[in-house]
Amino acid sequence: MTFSLADLALPIVQAPMAGGPSTVELAAAVCEAGGLGMVAGAGLSAQRLGEEIVLLRAATTAPFGVNLFSAPSPAVAPEVVEHYAASLAGEEGPLGEPRHDDDELHEKLALMVELRPPVVSFTFGCPHEPTVDRLRASGCAVWVTVTTPREAVYAAGVGADALIVQGVEAGGHRGSFDDVEPGDIGLLALLQLVAARTDLPLIAAGGIVTGRAIAGVLAAGASAAQLGTALMRTPEAGTPAEHRELMAEGMRPTGLTRAYSGRTARGIVNRFQQSHADAPSAYPQVNHLTAPLRAAARAAGDAEAFNLWAGQAYPLASDRPAGELVTELANEARERLSEVAKMVEKPR
Amino acid sequence: MTFSLADLALPIVQAPMAGGPSTVELAAAVCEAGGLGMVAGAGLSAQRLGEEIVLLRAATTAPFGVNLFSAPSPAVAPEVVEHYAASLAGEEGPLGEPRHDDDELHEKLALMVELRPPVVSFTFGCPHEPTVDRLRASGCAVWVTVTTPREAVYAAGVGADALIVQGVEAGGHRGSFDDVEPGDIGLLALLQLVAARTDLPLIAAGGIVTGRAIAGVLAAGASAAQLGTALMRTPEAGTPAEHRELMAEGMRPTGLTRAYSGRTARGIVNRFQQSHADAPSAYPQVNHLTAPLRAAARAAGDAEAFNLWAGQAYPLASDRPAGELVTELANEARERLSEVAKMVEKPR
Fold first, then answer.
1. pTM, full prediction
2. I want to staple A14 with a disulfide (CB 3.0 to 4.6 A). Which of A30, A195, B223, B244 is the partner?
3. Rounded mean pLDDT of chain B?
4. Which overall architecture, per CATH, does domain B5-75+102-239+317-345 show?
5. Looking at domain A5-75+103-239+317-345, what is its CATH homologous superfamily?
């Protein structure tokens, strides 16, 4: 039996947060609490991904998901990336080689067929129908991240089992198929537009940090809420200390930027993000280009020079243990729904 | 007794849609159905506003609101507007005089004190405390439109009775205090952030077009949903035919623009909006400047040259009569909340 959202005790899915915040410990904690933990399969080798899946299975028997990035768009002209690289000359640290690769996608897909995680979710594009068929034949449910109604219709057409509907509020990368149109629709509007075009189960993502917001997306038609930013301050997450501190302060706005990766992403505004507002759409080349800069800034504790991914409601994120937090948020959502259903029932 | 949202039969407020869509007939239909109809007090004379209030009171005994624009920011340098005017030289029709005025705000406030509508809502800024006190002493509830948590805290501080929380999904003008920071937060994220800073009743606005979205914002903590775009295709609305047609087609994206008014607003993307992406922040001068252009384009039925305000979920707007529609949406919201409360109650 392919995994269904109805199999979860809690209507909560962990967002994949590649590049640091996601850990096996975090996924295990979400799984053990009754939500769906997620292994962020991007940005690490297929071998390491396989190890993380084995480690997660050793930590929990509950279902979980693995997120992969779809194949990137064709490479832009090298001059575009060279021009951006030149503009980074004043930054501390060496630049990386701006290579265009597919993040070992084929090896990772083969690994999915072999290891059969209950869910494989995709970001940055939709897998082709044969890939979807192959994964489903292996017993994996296939989820696709969408940011527009058009992407939703396309993903439904290739046989996706569910759609992750990502509103513009979301922290980290826009999951859009094409970064030229990164999708700027607010979550509540997008949920309505997508639900009008497909009957697939929808997982709502973007700016959901409280039990009330979980209640909100469920009432608006989602089958579950995907939480990323909400979990970034938990002790199980691999979020850097300086990043956690700025989240806790909650004073700065977030903004969309291509400065770090060459793909549109939302982060807490800092110096690097502001200084390089002219970054081109060139993923993954820019991502590789800035990788050593980001690593150096993280090592130095300089929060002005590495990516501070966060969704728009980040000031409300809690630092409680992940399992406790997920349980509590689900309880709050349940209580709120019961309360509001009674409130509107009573004749005024 | 000052008006309270609990006095409404339905948790629905009509959005003020100055400049055409709002009519006395629309407000009366929403009021009669049990929602809160709204008179759009901006862009018409104080005398005409008084007449509309009298006409609405003749049509319904139910409570209603009046929306006013707060005092504008100081005028920008004339060269800024002259430069923009020069860029409009290729457009069909004469340009208007780019005057800086306050839309008869003082006369309109005096009218409110005299006519005592149950609710006076403000957009484009927060009234000063003495103004709030004067209105409240006259029996008007004072509502303030906010687009950031900071604006919400400020409005609570001057004694607002409720806050209209406007997400970035919303059609028409951003209700921000200052157009230099037009507020880009998605509705669901903003509701959470504002609720964390104030206990005032919240009216959720932006991209709410279906019963499920109403259910969503109520579950997320709002006391009511404010609907604008959802009502623009109703027969009672004054929306131009070409505007209605493009809404019904639902094919084009919306985008934020200052091209028509000099203040950030969301509309269905058309030629004028795309051609004048460099419009300055200069309200109301640019609004007066383009007024004859917009009127000429409307008269000629040229939907590429007048403002097509619409929220991000506009393709789902219905053309049913407003009273019927509002009743149906409220019923759908009620049913959905009851359904989802049961769904999460049952142990999985």
1. 0.97
2. A30
3. 96
4. Alpha-Beta Barrel (3.20)
5. Aldolase class I (3.20.20.70)
**What residues does each domain of chain A span?**
5-75+103-239+317-345
Distance CA B186, CA A213 (A): 12
Model ipTM?
0.96
**A 124-163 residues with CB < 8 A to B:** 149
Could you tell me which chain A residue has the CA closest to the CA of B347?
A9
Write out pLDDT tens, residues B249-308. 999 999 999 999 999 999 999 999 999 999 999 999 999 999 999 999 999 999 999 999
The amino acid sitting at B83 is H
Candidates B6, B213, B312; nearest CB to A220: B213
Q: Which pLDDT band holds residue B183 (cuts at 50, 70, 90)?
A: confident
Contact A195 B212 (CB under 8 A): yes
Contact B188 A11 (CB under 8 A): no
Scanning B51-110 for CB atoms below 8 A from A yields none
- Per DSSP, the three-state class of A38 is strand
Residue A73 distance to chain B (closest CA, Å): 23
What is the structure's pLDDT at B181? 86
Q: Which residues of A305-323 are buried (b: 16+ CB within 10 A; e: fewer)?
A: bbbbbbbbbbbbbbeeebb
Confidence of residue A347 (pLDDT cuts 50, 70, 90): low
Residue B215 to residue A212, Cβ atoms within 8 A: no
Task: Please give the backbone phi and psi of residue A156, each rounded to the nearest 5 degrees, phi first.
Answer: -60, -35
